[in-house]
Amino acid sequence: MWEDFKKFAIKGNVMDLAIAVVIGAAFGKIVTSLVADLIMPAVGILLGGYSVAELTYTFNSAELRYGAFLQSVIDFFIISFSIFLVIRLFTQFKRKKELPEETNEPVLTLNEQLLTEIRDLLAKEKAGQ
Predict the structure, then answer these.
(1) Per DSSP, what are the bridge partners of residue 62?
(2) 56, 65, 71, 98: which is deepest, by most CB within 10 A?
């Protein structure tokens, strides 16, 4: 069982997935910092110094902090859009890399076409004997 697990864990797909998780977590931190430190303060400035994260609704002694929820929703959309853009960029690079270069067939003259046909007929006749 241990050998099977080692084979599974060492496969390229598992290693790629582990690397993607680590990079994704780091990328998430970068985008979260972007949102928290740059975008949301700019939105607060546009709203006249009002912070979305501090929006609350108090009912009796209960305080509903819906602003923190809105902040998380905004973070989610910005992070998911950023990841979408990065993945789209990588897939475009991959598509360009995978496309085979077009090979132009040489244009044969009439004599060359006839000689090719004769060669093919002779090869078929020889194979038939």
Answers:
(1) 59
(2) 71
Instruction: Judge contact between 52 and 67, C-beta under 8 A.
Output: yes
The reported pTM is 0.50
Beta bridge partners of 59: 62
Within 13 Å, how many C-alpha atoms sit on residue 2's CB side?
A: 0
Q: What is the pLDDT of residue 102?
A: 66
Helix, strand, or coil here: 72? helix
Question: What are the structure tokens assigned to 33, written together?
Answer: 């910092």
For residue range 56-86, what is the model confidence (pLDDT) as tens digits?
Answer: 889 888 999 888 888 888 878 887 887 788 8
Residues 6+ apart with CB under 8 A from 51: 40, 44, 67
